[in-house]
Automatic annotation (TrEMBL), chains A, B:
Its main location: cytoplasm. This is tRNA (cytidine(56)-2'-O)-methyltransferase. It is an enzyme of class 2 (transferase). Belongs to the aTrm56 family. It comes from the Archaea. CDD domains: aTrm56-like (cd18083). Coiled coil: none annotated. Homodimer. InterPro entries: Alpha/beta_knot_MTases, tRNA_m1G_MTases_N, tRNA_mtfrase_aTrm56. GO terms for molecular function: tRNA (cytidine(56)-2'-O)-methyltransferase activity. The lineage of its organism: Archaea, Methanobacteriati, Methanobacteriota, Stenosarchaea group, Halobacteria. S-adenosyl-L-methionine binds at L84. Specifically catalyzes the AdoMet-dependent 2'-O-ribose methylation of cytidine at position 56 in tRNAs. Keywords: Cytoplasm, Methyltransferase, S-adenosyl-L-methionine, Transferase, tRNA processing.
Amino acid sequence: MERDPGVAVLRLGHRPGRDNRMTTHVGLTARALGADRAILAGRASAPKETIEDITDRFGGPFEVELTDEPGRVLREWSGPVVHLTMYGLPIQDVEDSIRADHGPEPVLAVVGAGKVPFDVYELADYNVGVTNQPHSEVAGLAVFLDRFFEGAELDREWTDATHRVVPKATGKQVEPIEDD
Amino acid sequence: MERDPGVAVLRLGHRPGRDNRMTTHVGLTARALGADRAILAGRASAPKETIEDITDRFGGPFEVELTDEPGRVLREWSGPVVHLTMYGLPIQDVEDSIRADHGPEPVLAVVGAGKVPFDVYELADYNVGVTNQPHSEVAGLAVFLDRFFEGAELDREWTDATHRVVPKATGKQVEPIEDD
């Protein structure tokens, strides 16, 4: 979202094939709920392509990149690093601190697939639990973003879309957007 | 969650194998974020088993059931039916109405996998979009539940758990719960 502070989402531990759908959902959730950018660790070219296709159709700005060095991304990130984990501190207790703590640098929200290496817990400025129950990295990311942006992400305007959904009480309406 | 109004989650369109992980995430998200019950349409015994294993370990109450007649569940539901769909009305515009509208009957939150039959749109009392962007039924459900319960679900107490996570700023701590 083009407002301060921006959020990038780092997806760790992607396993090609097996995790394609979950990683795609992580990236699409990041895009839909106000993040600017998804960084996918590992051979995640299939999810990257799907997320870019959606951005081409429904708008951006939203960037997707792959990395073979997620540890370096974590270590070199200049803004706050927020690792979403069921073992972390309750989001309702730390969300205000996270918002207050950031300067002009974007937040990096980190979500794993399966077991996350221990150094991620140590490199994170905040280990945050959206509940301390096992559920879904997609759900944790969604609640984190909605709370971080305090709902403002739902009013985001999209640019360079070719199509848009017209909200309806019943049924489906998608309309093309004509370039001026 | 043991407070009014309860929420049940109906998962439509499960394809065995292919959707196991997504359906499991839907069910675990429902449990973690305050719903009482998940109803899984189709041959979803593998997700059912995983969700029940988590409930046995980390607590309930939470029920999981399978149905071959999701249309009947929808038609016979006595409380409000909320279908989460990218084509629906913005959640920020309708969440207050949904809360105000329910009586003592639980809400049924409906999420699809892939294409949802058109009669679901017609049977729903509310078609609700968590954004009008394509992303994830897990993310949509998570944001819906967090908003519906206004965050109270994060303070839920769990019963009959054998283990609990102790929230930590860094690292992981899971402790057994001893029965008295």
